């Protein structure tokens, strides 16, 4: 089918001199992107449109859906666990489940309802969580899958006031579309200083000597220590804390080596540290200090086998995570003398059992997870996490997001109007699907004058996914879970970038969405390749449909739309207009595009959805070949 010419007739939104300029850039909030489901539910069947509610509110992320799920029988997309959030009260509730610095609490009080409830049992946390929009924890709260399930879609963000997120089930958070943010920098120095405190205290038996003197003893010969100067310290994990420990240990005259498979060698060299293999590190060190995260790869990496490879009399410091050590193996190594001493701030189980052999061992120095516990670090962490959580609740993407791509603010600002366009195109495309084998294959083509490296399409892809899936399932989609949900539903989205000769000042010239292997309820939307194909642009900051199948069109993607393909002859607009007028349906705009084959495509914007009878009358107008009602 040949491309048609386009002519906009009265009062067509933003049509007088089309331009692809985005709007004047305001700070992007992307509220609807991170936190809301679509506020305009649609039906795949004309007769089954659902009522919907808009709870207008200053925090738009709380504009949650009370819509029913559209019938998904026409596609293979099934219901998932990412249930759309239900409506809640208007001010966000932030639950803080562990002690947080006052400065951070103040930030939170200024934004929402703050509830501090410490020492909650897992059951109590689950009982409370469905009334909370955000949860702030430290290392003592286990944010399990049960917590996300119990949240019933309301929990939008989990803030970890610290670094380690091993107490948060990230997979579950992602599946439930819950953003996880942490505060990765404010406690680095505190943890490093604590590592050095344990190193020096252990080597001079400070804790044991202190206990003995308090018990009335004076044991000068028993507590002879070892010197640090000239000894080799292996820093396992050369990240933020590890590198600060290394710097300080150098100052104590130690020879510092490090093992970190992911750290750049030049960063280590700049501190005077050689990066070595794991085997080399543990075999040459007099002291080993642990600073890696607890992951499946690092769990129990210090075990019988690795202790056996260490120098006899090695001393171990752990301010990272207890789980990186097999604690039973450490007891055996202490008993055999392979490990002379250990200084531990962290434990597999916290608090450790009172009768634990490790805890009771006289060569072990212990602190109750105090690495981050300085006044300065706690104030810093509290502010860092409070700001990250508030930002996330406002719909901004966080720089410390753990389970979502980090998108710099300037990129967000630029992409905002295209993000809206992407969702509208997804939403429109799915409404054109009449049946087939389900939606499994979607192709997205971005036409852009930009170098591919300068165009981050993750947001756009996520929004297309949201537009396609949300109207036809119970899923709630955001940047966090878009790829996961798409995969879960068997929806494959392939992306292609086509270079066009337009202004590289704008990130995208147009976005095309094609759905393959489905039947269309509006044949004109099917391209020569057999796919449902639509294309849109941003014009004056608003999303516009510019191509449908092989028809060129120019339609503002907003509100309710009737598309008709008809014989191109006089009187057609009047006939349809009369039907709508007589049935009290207000027309907001009308636009007609012509084809070379005496066909025309008429787009009619209407204020509300016409009833079934009105739509049937339109369908019966002679020479209207097909029509479809779309809700955008
Ligand atoms: N005891 C406490 O109160 C505190 C504990 N921590 C813990 O300290 C650890 C380090 O924290 P940061 O330095 O801030 O994190 P980071 O992410 O800056 O550094 C971790 C480093 O470990 C490296 N790494 C990953 N896998 C490794 C492996 N298999 N072997 C060796 N290195 C590996 C990474 O490449 C990275 O450089 C974390 O586990 C954190 O939870 C942090 C702050 C306070
Ligand atoms: O930041 C970290 O990883 C820590 O381990 C600090 O834990 P905390 O916040 O003191 O419970």
From TrEMBL:
EC annotation from Swiss-Prot or TrEMBL: 1.1.1.95
Reactions it catalyzes: (2R)-3-phosphoglycerate + NAD(+) = 3-phosphooxypyruvate + NADH + H(+)
PANTHER family: D-3-PHOSPHOGLYCERATE DEHYDROGENASE 2, CHLOROPLASTIC (PTHR42938:SF46), FORMATE DEHYDROGENASE 1 (PTHR42938)
The encoding gene: LOC103328735
UniProt-annotated stretches for the region Disordered: 1-31
All residue ranges annotated as the ACT domain in the record: 561-632
Listed pathway(s): Amino-acid biosynthesis; L-serine biosynthesis; L-serine from 3-phospho-D-glycerate: step 1/3
Annotated family: Belongs to the D-isomer specific 2-hydroxyacid dehydrogenase family.
InterPro entries linked: ACT-like_dom_sf, ACT_dom, Ado_hCys_hydrolase_NAD-bd, ASB_dom_sf, D-isomer_2_OHA_DH_cat_dom, D-isomer_DH_CS, D-isomer_DH_CS1, D-isomer_DH_NAD-bd
Compositional bias of kind Low complexity: 15-31
Domain of life: Eukaryota
Entry keyword annotation includes Nuclease: no
Top EC group: oxidoreductase
The protein, known as: D-3-phosphoglycerate dehydrogenase
Keywords, comma-separated and alphabetical: Amino-acid biosynthesis, NAD, Oxidoreductase, Serine biosynthesis
